[in-house]
């Protein structure tokens, strides 16, 4: 009997003419069984290996303040998955407070039920509502599980951070840098107003603006926080006479005339059409939806930092050796669709280091 291998398939050749028929037939049957076993054994082994990996991988719970399709949440999720998914099973839970704020505390209780069920090795809590509704009531100084926050606009002391089991990264918009960059593009911009959908995060940003606006290169006029489409229209009309540019924070969740929460694209388009002057901002999706420019903070930086901090904690680094951080990086973006529509002509040197994008339909 000759045994040889070709392209990972084993072939058995039996000298049939030298064997009695029944014995040859029996050997042929045995050979077929052996071939099947050799072919499928690696697949069985790999399948058992995957099952074993799923069983032994520790779990991580990520609680997002907003909804799954929200651009900011998606940016953060990409980096959490990249850093942790190879070694940990990640469970995502969305409080959906941008669209259904009044249900947030109920959803937070569901998140805690999930926490008790899966007993994760670590937790990441994203944005301010996840802190006030989930971490502070259920986890802070109450469990030994390490918790890392990200996307927090308010001062950490509001939530009692750092805590025995909580650290993370704060989110700070590049406001002064964005205002100065807009003035480089359009030197006639002398005054600035702010607008963001009324929420805890926007209240926190408003406090920052009120504290630091004397250091801005443009004169600060007002900060508006609408809830409904009617609020947006009336507030923008009020700001137009005195504001050269409008710094727009997140507007998703504005309630339209039918009682429906508006998405970021729809709300931004509404503001842009009504204001009819340059919008600026701090989020990439604002630029994609019709703002002129921004020095953008990224969810990716928030996600990767929080994930790495949690990884250190889960690997045994004491929390008092993982101090609270603040985002550091910003990238300049210019919307060439808006620039062309407004007849803005800029010096080529101002394009260096900036990414040019167009308004998404």
Brief characterization of the structure:
The protein has 361 residues and is an alpha/beta fold. The chain is built from 11 helices and 15 strands.
Number of helices: 11
Chain-averaged pLDDT = 88
Q: Rg from C-alpha positions? A: 28 Å
- Can you tell me the overall shape? globular
Order of helices and strands: EEHEHEHEHEEHEHEHEHEHEHEEHE
DSSP summary, beta strand count: 15
Please give the share of residues in helix.
40-55%
How much strand? 15-25%
**Which blocks of ≥5 consecutive residues have pLDDT under 50?**
1-25, 43-54
Q: Largest sheet, if any?
A: 7 strands, mixed
Oligomer: single chain
**Order of adjacent strands in the largest pleated sheet:** 9-8-10-11-12-14-15
Beginning-to-end CA distance, first to last residue:
70 Å
Secondary structural class:
alpha/beta
Describe what this molecule looks like in 3D.
- This protein is α/β, with parallel strands linked by helices.
- 42% of the residues lie in helices and 20% in strands.
- The chain has 11 helices and 15 strands.
- The strands form 3 sheets. A 7-stranded mixed β-sheet has the order 9-8-10-11-12-14-15, with helices on both faces. Strands 4-3-5-6-7-13 form a 6-stranded parallel β-sheet, with helices on both faces. The chain has a two-stranded antiparallel sheet with strand order 1-2.
- β10 (245-248), α8 (264-275) and β11 (279-281) form a beta-alpha-beta unit.
- α2 packs parallel to α10, α3 (104-118) packs across α4 (128-139) and α7 (229-239) packs parallel to α8.
- The longest helix is centred in the N-terminal third of the chain and has 36 residues, at 21-56.
């Amino acid at each position: 009997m000759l045994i040889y291998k070709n392209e990972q398939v084993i072939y058995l050749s039996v000298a049939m003419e030298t064997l009695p028929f029944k014995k040859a037939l029996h050997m042929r049957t045995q050979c077929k069984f052996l071939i099947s076993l050799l072919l499928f054994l690696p697949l069985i082994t790999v399948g058992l290996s995957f099952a074993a990996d799923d069983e032994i991988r520790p779990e991580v719970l990520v609680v997002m303040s907003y909804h799954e399709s929200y651009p900011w949440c998606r940016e953060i999720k990409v980096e959490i998955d990249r850093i942790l998914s190879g070694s940990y099973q990640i469970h995502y839970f969305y409080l959906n407070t941008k669209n259904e704020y009044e249900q947030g505390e109920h959803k937070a209780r569901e998140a805690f039920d999930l926490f008790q069920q899966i007993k994760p090795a670590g937790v990441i809590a994203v944005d301010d509502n996840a802190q006030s509704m989930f971490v502070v009531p259920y986890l802070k100084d109450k469990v030994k599980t390490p918790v890392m926050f990200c996307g927090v606009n308010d001062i950490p002391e509001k939530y009692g951070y750092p805590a025995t089991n909580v650290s993370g990264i704060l989110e700070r918009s590049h406001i002064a840098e964005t205002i100065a960059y807009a003035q480089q593009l359009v030197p006639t911009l002398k005054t600035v107003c702010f607008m963001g959908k009324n929420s805890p995060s926007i209240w926190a940003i408003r406090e920052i603006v009120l504290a630091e606006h004397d250091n801005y290169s443009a004169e600060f006029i007002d900060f508006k926080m609408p809830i409904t489409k009617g609020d947006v229209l009336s507030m923008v009309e009020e700001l137009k006479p005195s504001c050269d540019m409008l710094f727009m924070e997140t507007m998703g969740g504005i309630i339209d005339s039918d009682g429906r929460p508006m998405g970021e694209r729809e709300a931004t388009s509404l503001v842009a059409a009504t204001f009819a002057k340059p919008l600026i901002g701090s989020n990439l999706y604002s630029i994609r939806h019709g703002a002129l420019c921004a020095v953008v903070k990224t969810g990716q930086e928030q996600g990767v930092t929080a994930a790495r901090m949690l990884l250190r904690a889960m690997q045994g680094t004491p929390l008092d050796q993982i101090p609270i951080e603040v985002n550091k990086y910003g990238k300049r973006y210019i919307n060439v669709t808006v620039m062309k529509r407004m007849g803005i002509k800029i010096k080529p040197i101002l394009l260096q280091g900036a990414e040019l994008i167009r308004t998404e339909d």
